[in-house]
Write the structure tokens for this entry.
Amino acid sequence: MTTVPTPDEIKATALRILGEIAPEADLSSLNPDVSFRDQLDIDSMDFLNFVIALHETLHIDIPEADYPKLDSLTACVKHLPELLIAKTEPPG
């Protein structure tokens, strides 16, 4: 059974990925409750690359309908565990 990362681990993963996508961004001053796109100089393709990197790093499917639920650090910490738990539950 796969363990679900802690909120701190999810936060660290999201920040690491954001740092790769927007290396010029000052992630230390990131407001966790404000949309990444409102704070960082990223466009829709950068955000899509962020979601793809989350998918590849965490080995989870992220439905396109869930993309808006990952628009801030707080939103990632809230929503990604739900996807990870769903992945570990047996079907049926």
Observations:
- Residues 73-88 form the longest helix (16 residues).
- The mean pLDDT is 91.
- The chain is about 55% helix and 0% strand.
